[in-house]
């Protein structure tokens, strides 16, 4: 959106004056001076970048147009040969002297042993993932309900798609992956059934977030640009992984090396995704605080400054949060889904509550809402996460966040995009290099998930900013969209009533089990 256009907040026609901005938000301008936060994790990330970048370049060049250019294979085979060679038995004749050494020209290596044999598959995976990512964002920004259609399709089709891919794995005699995908399909189906009553409210929040993002086309361009940045790193990553896949490493060494490199790629993708999260959520937060992008109190060049802070002073906090946030969020969704369907089974409820409280403690220090405070106030990640969570708990908005499944729905879109990418690449590999289909298909799935996640996070960032603003001052939401404000406030009231009644029910149940005492 250009600076001369007005946002829906400014066009709502509400004559009430703008409420006072929260003290911690400093909406009049960005903080005058910022310090670099979580510098240790920034240094760790940079060291990781150089170390893994060198490993990837070495592994790819080792088999690029020439087998074993740097003579690495003997070192990989040496430990295996020493481990498997049996000592000669007593009384056995001495082995015959070795014959003449025969050298094989490296120039005549088989095509199946070269990096470029597998690099083309990862190039196709990057192309498919990019098309799916940009198509998802275009669908969300195009038609009025295009994003809702895509999200609903992801929710309802993911179980079926997992089941189909599981059948394909069984057909190809890959029983481990077939069982894993079948279990994933069952877990996804059970989760959807356990939270299906929450989907109307979830879709309401997502629809509002999509509308807000559509009014800020600049932040969508940021997502497109970061997809291209991710593709540049993926070109190097896939180059190195292709060289490793082309090697003959004993004891499943390929899988262990590819697993380590996949963790590195996941961290890199999470960092770029959370960088987009910081930029977009900070921009949406400022628009809500000031009542529109064209407001006189809006800081100058907010998107540019948000981008500047995200890649400089706040980048260490982004690197730190990206290590743990995604895993903790996913675990919390699963435990909440199970906990809501336990009923009166006291033993099972006690076990689930034990894990639930552990995860809730972790969420206090690692949550996605910290990124708003990181970009607006320049705080460290743990302090931002703690402040945001205390704000939600003190205002009761935490009950609304626990009821909302928008993050899970967006994750389903990400997983579906990864599955489509992995399936396309895996099927192609199966018909040309059948023994490498699983390792190429699984890593291609990760590539697709990361690329689609870079665009999906734009909507998730808007959802995050909506909840932060509603907790800071509900009038900010009322000023922008009175109808949405009424709906979200009514849902919050219902959730607080439900929690209160459930707490009374649990307390009464425990009191009934206390031994009766006679009064003196």
Structure class:
mainly alpha
What overall geometry do the principal axes of the alpha carbons give?
Answer: globular
Contiguous low-pLDDT stretches (5 residues minimum) are: 1-8, 10-29, 79-86, 99-111
Assign a percent range to the helix content: over 70%
Distinct helical segment count: 18
**How many β-strands, per DSSP?**
0
* Global Rg: 27 Å
Q: How confident overall, as mean pLDDT?
A: 79
Give the helices and strands as they follow along the chain. Answer: HHHHHHHHHHHHHHHHHH
For the biggest sheet, the summary is: none
The oligomeric status of these chains comes to single chain
Explain what this protein looks like in three dimensions:
With 520 residues, the protein is mainly α. It is 73% helix and 0% strand. The protein has 18 helices and no strands. It has helices at residues 39-62, 73-84, 115-141, 146-171, 175-195, 199-214, 217-246, 253-290, 302-310, 315-339, 346-365, 370-377, 381-395, 397-403, 406-432, 437-472, 474-480, 482-512. Helix 3 packs antiparallel against helix 4, helix 6 (199-214) packs across helix 16 and helix 16 (437-472) packs across helix 17 (474-480). It is globular. Mean pLDDT is 79; it is low at 1-8, 10-29, 79-86 and 99-111.
Write the layout of secondary structure elements.
Layout: H1 39-62, H2 73-84, H3 115-141, H4 146-171, H5 175-195, H6 199-214, H7 217-246, H8 253-290, H9 302-310, H10 315-339, H11 346-365, H12 370-377, H13 381-395, H14 397-403, H15 406-432, H16 437-472, H17 474-480, H18 482-512
């Amino acid at each position: 959106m250009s600076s001369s256009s007005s946002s829906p907040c400014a066009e709502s026609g509400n004559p009430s004056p703008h409420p006072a901005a929260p003290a911690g938000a400093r909406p009049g301008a960005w903080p005058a001076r910022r310090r670099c936060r979580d510098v240790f994790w920034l240094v760790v990330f940079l060291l990781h970048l150089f170390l893994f970048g060198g490993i990837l370049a070495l592994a790819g060049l080792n088999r690029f147009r020439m087998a074993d250019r740097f003579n690495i294979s003997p070192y990989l085979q040496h430990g295996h040969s020493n481990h498997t060679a049996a000592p000669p038995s007593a009384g056995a004749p001495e082995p015959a002297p070795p014959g003449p050494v025969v050298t094989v020209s490296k120039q005549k290596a088989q095509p199946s042993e070269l990096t470029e044999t597998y690099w083309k598959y990862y190039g196709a995976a990057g192309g498919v993932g990019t098309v799916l990512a940009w198509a998802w964002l275009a669908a969300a920004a195009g038609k009025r309900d295009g994003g809702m259609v895509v999200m609903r399709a992801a929710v309802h089709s993911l179980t079926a798609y997992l089941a189909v891919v599981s059948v394909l794995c069984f057909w190809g005699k890959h029983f481990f992956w077939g069982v894993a995908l079948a279990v994933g399909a069952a877990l996804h189906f059970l989760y959807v059934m356990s939270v299906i009553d929450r989907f109307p409210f979830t879709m309401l929040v997502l629809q509002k977030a999509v509308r807000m993002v559509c009014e800020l086309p600049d932040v969508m361009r940021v997502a497109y640009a970061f997809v291209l940045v991710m593709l540049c790193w993926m070109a190097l990553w896939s180059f190195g992984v292709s060289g490793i896949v082309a090697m003959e490493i004993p004891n499943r060494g390929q899988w262990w090396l590819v697993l380590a490199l996949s963790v590195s790629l996941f961290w890199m993708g999470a960092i770029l995704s959370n960088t987009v999260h910081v930029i977009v959520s900070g921009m949406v937060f400022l628009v809500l605080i000031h009542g529109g992008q064209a407001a006189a109190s809006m800081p100058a060049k907010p998107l540019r400054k948000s981008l500047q802070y995200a890649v400089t002073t706040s980048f260490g906090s982004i690197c730190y949060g990206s290590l743990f946030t995604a895993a903790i969020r996913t675990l919390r969704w699963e435990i909440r889904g199970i906990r809501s369907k336990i009923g009166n089974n006291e033993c099972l409820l006690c076990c689930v509550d034990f894990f639930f409280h552990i995860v809730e403690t972790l969420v206090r220090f690692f949550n996605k809402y910290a990124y708003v405070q990181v970009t607006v106030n320049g705080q460290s990640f743990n302090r931002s996460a703690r402040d945001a969570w205390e704000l939600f708990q003190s205002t009761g908005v935490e009950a609304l966040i626990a009821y909302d499944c928008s993050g899970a729905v967006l994750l389903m879109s990400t997983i579906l995009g990864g599955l489509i990418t992995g399936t396309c690449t895996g099927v192609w590999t199966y018909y040309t290099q059948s023994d490498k289909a699983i390792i190429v298909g699984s890593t291609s799935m990760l590539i697709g998930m990361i690329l689609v996640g870079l665009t999906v996070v734009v909507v998730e960032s808007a959802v995050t900013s909506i909840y932060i603003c509603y907790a800071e001052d509900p009038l900010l939401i009322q000023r922008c969209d009175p109808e949405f404000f009424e709906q979200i406030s009514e849902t919050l009231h219902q959730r607080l009533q439900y929690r209160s009644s459930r707490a009374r029910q649990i307390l009464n149940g425990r009191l009934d089990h206390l031994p009766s005492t006679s009064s003196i």
